UniProtKB/TrEMBL annotation:
Transmembrane segments: none annotated. It comes from the Bacteria. It comes from Petrotoga halophila DSM 16923. Belongs to the ROK (NagC/XylR) family. This is ROK family protein.
Length: 285
């Protein structure tokens, strides 16, 4: 079973998270009629900076309550099964590499726009991790001089303009309404489609700054394609025009002309595919 970030965010502590994973694992074993001995490993995707050297979660900007804990030790001890933990954008990039755009190109940038924003960079069919597995934090590129304070503590980060969390917060603030803590972007999409100017303005701003940030990255990495995934697929038609305005503002014309933009054709299974591939990779190391 796929466990959504929204579901995890509704839980109160690490014990509840562990119990949820154990329950899901029991359901899988029951459905497949297998025992724990048949499970060679589990992949866990988290929206944070994950140190691959010790398989611990270094910092989770979008899971503030679960800051600084060693997931791998807690999960493995409780389940008695090897576990691989990594950033969710990295896992999605691996899933895309195996079953998506990776069948067509060797270099691409996957950008996941959901509750937060992260990226996975694939170069020559290999996931680029950086020295400490901390690459891809595109959500913390500065796109403006000022703005709301980001979860990282700074101002002007892309996440404060284009993440689902920030967009929903801004809408309810603009309308002087109580925040919908489920962070349901679907409601804001409906409002925009009905002509709500507050909603439309937030989407326009989101698209512009997203394009601006990706344009800056493209000037450095010059990949063949950019794949957008996550909640953004639900409202791409609303932000597309403003996205390209931002992209055009920062990207060199020759690079923009030769870079393909597309929405991922894969669903939530993209994360599971990437997680499974990381488990296999870890077994071979």
């Amino acid at each position: 079973p796929f466990i959504s970030l929204k579901k995890i965010m509704s839980l109160k502590n690490i014990t509840e998270i562990l119990n949820l994973f154990i329950k899901s694992l029991d359901e899988i074993k029951h459905d497949l009629n297998i025992t724990s001995d048949s499970i060679k490993g589990i992949g866990v995707a988290f929206p944070g900076l994950v140190s691959r050297n010790n398989n611990s979660l270094s910092i989770t900007p979008n899971l503030e309550r679960y800051f600084d804990f060693s997931l791998i030790d807690k999960f493995s001890e409780k389940l008695q099964i090897p576990i691989v933990v990594d950033n969710n954008a990295n896992m999605k990039a691996l899933g895309e590499l195996i079953y998506g755009i990776g069948k067509e190109v060797h270099d691409f940038l996957l950008v996941n726009i959901s509750y937060g924003i992260g990226a996975g960079l694939v170069i020559q069919n290999q996931l680029f991790r950086g020295k400490y597995n901390l690459s891809g934090e595109i959500g913390h590129i500065k796109v403006a001089e000022d703005g709301d304070i980001c979860s990282c503590g700074e101002k002007g980060c892309l996440e404060t303009f284009s993440s689902v969390r920030s967009m929903v917060r801004k809408y309810y603030t603009k309308c002087n309404k109580k925040l919908d803590e489920s962070y349901d972007i679907g409601k804001i999409i409906d409002y925009a489609n009905q002509g709500d100017q507050n909603a439309i303005q937030i989407f326009q701003e989101s698209g512009f700054y997203l394009g601006k940030a990706i344009g800056n990255v493209l000037n450095i990495v010059n990949v063949e394609s950019v794949v957008l995934t996550g909640e953004v697929k639900k409202y791409w038609d609303i932000i597309e025009k403003d996205f390209y305005k931002g992209l055009n503002e920062t990207t060199l014309p020759l690079i923009e002309k030769n870079t393909q933009m597309r929405l991922s054709g894969l669903g939530e299974e993209i994360t599971a595919i990437g997680a499974a591939s990381m488990v296999l990779e870890n077994m071979l190391i």
